[in-house]
Amino acid sequence: MSGNVVNVPDDIQLIDVEGSADQAKQQMINEKATLVFRDGKRKIDYVLAYEPEDNEDLKKEQRRNTFEKNLIEEGLELEHEGKETSKNGKTCFTKVHVPWETMLRYAELLNVKMPLAVNDMETQLESCFENCWKKFPSPFELDEDLLPEEPNYFTAPFNRSRMDQYIGVEYINKEFVIKDKDTFFTHAQRSKICYEILSRAHFLDLDDDDDKFNKKFGVRKLVDNQTYNAAYPLHDGRYHSDHSLLTVGKDNDRHLLYELWARPGRWYKYQPLDQIRGYFGEKVGIYFSWLGFYTSMLIPVAIAGVVAFIYGLATIMDDVPSTEICEDPVISNYTMCPMCDQRCSYWHLSDSCTYSRATYLFDNPATVCFAIVMALWASFFLEFWKRRQAEIEYEWDVADFEEGEETVRPEYEASVSRRRTNPVTNREEPYVPGWSKGFRYFTSFSILLFFLALVLAAVFSVILYRIVMSAILYGNSESIIKTRASFISSISAACINLVIILILNMFYQRVAYFLTELEQHRTLTEWEDAFTFKMFLFQFVNFYSSIFYIAFFKGKFVGRPGDYNRSLLDKRQEECDPSGCLIELCIQLGIVMVGKQIINNVKEILIPKLMVWFRSRQSLKETSEEKVYSRWEQDYNLASMPALGLFDEYLEMVIQYGFVTIFVAAFPLAPLFALLNNVIEIRVDAYKFTTQWKRPLAERAQDIGIWFGILRGISAIAVISNAAIIAFTSEFIPKLVYLYGYSPDQTLSGYTNFSLSEFKVQYFAPQSVPDDPKMEIFGNVTQCRYRGYFADDPSTPGEYKYTMAYWHILAAKLAFVVVFENLVVFCTWLVMYLVPDMPYKVKLQMLRENFLAKEALFSADSIQKQRERKNASSD
């Protein structure tokens, strides 16, 4: 068969067979053949795809030709596939292979870590407890028959001058002999090296304008300007198979990952992290490692949250204050002051019966204990993750990545014209002076503040909506609507707020990208950290501002009847129900948190599937048996990983972490919903990476980056926030003060009457007098009650002052905040002191590896001298 028609090696021919099984088998053979060049030997390390049009701009063709010519000059080998060979009949492919000598040269330049010796300390350092634990079977463990344990090696940066020190290399007849060149470098390492070359090759000729030439390079820009439609490494093959993994074994690494990790039925199994790292690279591996660790840490607090909620359910009918509101013949018939101006009328306290019962579910002593547990949990989570991260850094050879291995961003080199000699490497590098950095950061910060103010303006509009909607609903003639006015306005405002959040997210991502580019960061890690920080600030204000408003501002600055605060556009501010604002906070939190998770999961499943179906439909229509549906075309039809990589995945989880920790005192079920979401999220992400996305570039990373600092900041805010919610939003402290300071029988009987103040309606401001007081129901109203601790001043009619109970409660609230924060800070310090950042066995293994690296260096030098003396004597 001609290579222009069927792109398989010459020794594999397409044959006509009878039966769908034989056809499927032959198709699989042909697909496997498309993982290499036509000679059947050279691996395809990268693929460049483009769809030429009849009236295509000649500049695109010139760029491709120049770019590919420069790739060949750089040492790469290319092979082309015309559009007549593709199933859709319109896509051309350029296959890229990195030859052996080029691979060795760049492996040394990029400090690729290679194995020196088998780790002989790992088993020795295992404790008796660890050995005993391994003997107990666990349903969560992966089957060792399907996934045998891989050997762990001590490693060192690759160096061609001492190649025989690495495992798999021997020195024979004055030459270094590689036992297996196909497996010496992993596919991830090969694709990373290939991308480094692709990212630095120019696509303009040298005779072009110098300034223009310096900025026109890299495959990323060619993809952005549609010169190439896609650039990607290949998957290993199909992710599904007709045979059993247990009986026949894996077809390829992708098939293994799907069966053990991405398949929904494996939701309860541990993740094969080493295999994920080997297939997708360290950056993706660290993300899934962190996500799995975070999810497992949620299990105990999710159980504790459910216990706190069950306690509320079990004791809801024993709550004295809500029982008084619902059943006491005197208290339930208290005439309450209108909740808004003019349109609202008087109402009976019994109207808030359901509201007060629901509030108790989340405002009870168990919730306070749970908030303390969550504050301590956040500290444990961060400290134990640091230990786990130290293990990952060592096991995956990324401990010194940011210091020794990371290279300068090509975009930085292109955009910065100044040069200076690096005092460390003694090489000339791009340089941004301090005054330029300061000006760029100042400009970026100013624009950032402006757009954060826009986010707050959007939140302000939702607050106005709540105020106006509450007034309209309270003035409704239908009692079923009027009694649920606060509930309806809270739910509708939360839904509107969720929609605004999702819309603003798309806009602010572009703003953050522009500002980060403006700052000119030297390395990819610095760029990602700066971008992440800006986006998190946007998201923090976007997601949490409305919740902070309900938790700490709503109902706190209303004033009192006769003297309402009207500083907000001359509007009377929102009031809380007599049972408090906690249930509104819970509603807002639940809708935003759970709604966001549902929308994200649906989006992450449906959008990639629709994109893959849409792009592959033309190829699937092709019925010609003359054409192989090649691996490179199948991968081309897959969705591309977002340009920002794992940013969206991390951001989703960190925002969730904020919901779980900052506001958990108001919503103890948050850890449970987070746990359920994350169990699904792991498998959704795994399915997406394995089946729906092109294989991403296997990037290296040392840790989760700036996200750890953000998590630490959220944990610190959570301590203050939960202390303030318990003290100032819930009724926990006022109830304690009443119980031990004002209750004659040391019970909460009479607390409702204690928490309400009386107001003489003759002192209402004109705009506050109800238009429809409904005298036929309430009779001649002379006074009404409202939430607060006020008493009239006999010396000045119409004036009301705070009672002594108010000052007692305020002092108790402040004391609680101080004690709560200091207790948590002390426990956090204790955890940090008792839990070292790096496990002892990792320290020893690092020392052992450094020792072996030095020994290898001295040994290589000694062997080299012996060879030189031997060669000299033989000559």
Descriptive labels:
chloride channel activity, 57% helix, disordered N terminus, glycoprotein, 875 residues, 18 strands, alpha+beta, two-stranded antiparallel sheet
Write a compact overview of the structure shown.
By secondary structure, this protein is α+β, with helices and mostly antiparallel strands.
Oligomer: single chain
Radius of gyration: 34 Å
Main beta sheet: 4 strands, antiparallel
End-to-end Cα distance, whole Å, is 53 Å
In round numbers, the mean pLDDT is 78
Give the strand line-up of the largest sheet.
Answer: 2-3-1-8
Summarize the amount of helix as a percent range.
Answer: 55-70%
Strand content: 5-15%
Number of strands: 18
- How many helical stretches? 31
Family: Belongs to the anoctamin family.
Membrane topology: Multi-pass membrane protein
Keywords: Cell membrane, Glycoprotein, Membrane, Transmembrane, Transmembrane helix
Domain Anoctamin dimerisation: 36-273
Structural summary, described in words:
This protein is of the alpha+beta class and 875 residues long. Among the domains are: 113-184 and 839-874, no CATH class; 270-418 and 454-733, no CATH class. The protein has 31 helices and 18 strands. This is Anoctamin. It is found in: Cell membrane; Membrane. Residues 36-273 form the Anoctamin dimerisation domain.
